[in-house]
Design goal:
Length: 181
Amino acid sequence: MEKKMRKCTNKPGYHKDYYRSKKGVFTKIYSNQRNTSKVRGHNPPTYTKEELIIWLNDNGFDELYDNWVKSDYERYMVPSCDRLDDSIGYQLDNLRLVTWQENLDKANQDNRDGKFKKEINPSGWRKTYDKVLQYDMNDNLINEFLSPQDAADKCGFKANYIISCCRGTKEHYHGFKWCYK
């Protein structure tokens, strides 16, 4: 039996053009919020796509969108929504409108500060953090850090080696013993 190939009827660049349109950006933001909620085990957004569009337009979306277009669609300038409190799901009173770069910078800062790490669990992933303890070679406690990255930043070391010690695959690093609290 011969399989028939279906011909694409969309114009070349249709999807790219759509996702660069305001309607496409609205759709992308809302669908990302719905998918992220599932993965994190949160309830879905408490608003409809239409309510989100109204909220976006009332909170400066046009200016962010126009700046993104002027930047020739630089990926870091894409309008995005950030949750003010990452421990709860998407609610209009828990959102702020930012660029994708600002959202990324906040997430990176939270990770550096040891606020969050992604942890797989049966219901998806949740954000938690593991404090790290630094001991000398005689098992005397020297310091406590919010996370492996926090320890690495403050000591000038590499986080992946500290993590290896905490997991037990490496005995010590830079003359110190490391473990999770």
